[in-house]
Design a protein that fits this description.
single chain, 347 residues, alpha/beta, Rossmann fold, 7-stranded parallel beta sheet, 9 helices
Length: 347
């Protein structure tokens, strides 16, 4: 009898995305309550090692599809593999990481299987034989508990909302190869190449994030280079401010984030945006520098375990959700804070 709980492992270039391993803690809990084990699905080219590692993280069975048509992620052939397996084996639950690929794949598989998707889930439990999923709604202001009445129940789990189990190299499991179901000439999309848009620690995987907002440009004491107009001076000052944010992030091995206001103003690239229209993150520590804390931004980081806010405005909304708040100028606070942390961490 096929396992009721499946896990889709998101990988890129033969390396599993760390949030994929977080799924196994949740999957094992569901499997224990529903009966049976955990099945993982891996698709790509040269991903046998990922399949074997999935066993160490808790998979009792792994379906692995190794094919050149899957070398680059394209939703059509990936969905065809997963939808075909699910139609044949009839799992009750399939878990995905809430990555860009995971969201796209879950949506397409849901169409193929005529079911629904519960997105960005932060907790799971069994009620009346169905999975009851907890997810934030209305920008994180409310928590909703929902079920999917169709099967399989497709669920994407928010990154860092679930702890990954420890890998056990002694665990054994069954690894079954499966064939790709779409030929290359039937795939409508082609990948022409990649351009690296973000360096350093990934926001999705970061345990610590240091973010900057519009306040990073508010340092009139900085003397700009000659020849810049007013808008260029603002951008220059903001970039100097983000250097301070980046230096603190570097000391803490953290990712650099930003508010939508900072991104819209051209201070930093969109890839750094945290918020409802950016990335939704759940780090252990989130340091907000010069960020007022608009609802849109709160929606992307309110599940952070510890929030530290640094802002000159004591009435800034960010202080209402921060565990620790510093009312003051970030340009006076960040340099000594960075130096102090550097000395302490290097001692």
């Amino acid at each position: 009898m096929a396992d009721k709980v499946w896990v889709y492992i998101d990988q890129f270039d033969g390396e599993a995305i760390p949030s994929s391993w977080e799924l196994f803690g949740a999957a094992s809990k569901l499997a224990n309550e529903m009966g049976g084990g955990v099945t993982a699905v891996v698709a790509g080219a040269d991903v046998q090692q990922v399949a074997e590692l999935a066993v160490h993280y808790g998979a009792d069975q792994v379906y692995v599809c190794n094919d050149e048509t899957l070398k680059e992620f394209r939703a059509e052939p990936y969905a065809s593999v997963l939808s075909g397996l699910a139609s044949e084996q009839q799992p009750e639950v399939i878990l995905f990481p809430t990555t860009s690929r995971g969201r796209e794949l879950a949506a397409m598989v849901a169409v193929d299987l005529k079911t629904g998707v519960l997105p960005d889930v932060t907790n799971l439990e069994i009620q009346d034989g169905k999975v009851l999923a907890t997810r934030p709604v209305y920008g994180g202001k409310l928590i909703s508990k929902v079920v999917c009445n169709a099967q399989p129940q497709l669920i994407t789990l928010r990154g860092r909302a679930f702890s990954p189990p420890a890998a056990d190299s002694t665990k054994t499991g069954q690894v079954d190869p499966v064939a790709a179901s779409v030929a290359e000439d039937e795939i409508k999309t082609k990948v022409s190449g990649y351009t690296e848009s973000q360096k350093g620690v990934s926001l999705n995987d970061a345990a610590v994030i240091v973010s900057g907002g519009r306040g990073v440009s508010n340092n009139p004491s900085l003397e700009p280079p000659a020849g810049l107009d007013e808008s260029e001076v603002e951008i220059w000052r903001a970039q100097e401010g983000f250097k301070l944010v980046g230096e603190l992030a570097s000391v803490l091995n953290a990712a650099v984030g930003a508010s939508r206001a900072a991104v819209d103003a051209g201070y930093i690239l969109y890839e750094h945006q945290v918020g409802q229209t950016g990335k939704v993150v759940s780090p252990d520590l989130y340091i907000a520098c010069g960020i007022s804390g608009a609802i849109q931004h709160q929606a992307g980081m309110r599940t952070s375990k510890v929030i530290v806010a640094i802002n000159k405005d004591p009435e800034a909304p960010i202080f209402k959700m921060a565990r620790f708040g510093v009312v003051g100028d970030l340009f006076e606070i960040l340099p000594p804070l960075t130096e102090s942390l550097k000395a302490r961490l290097n001692s």
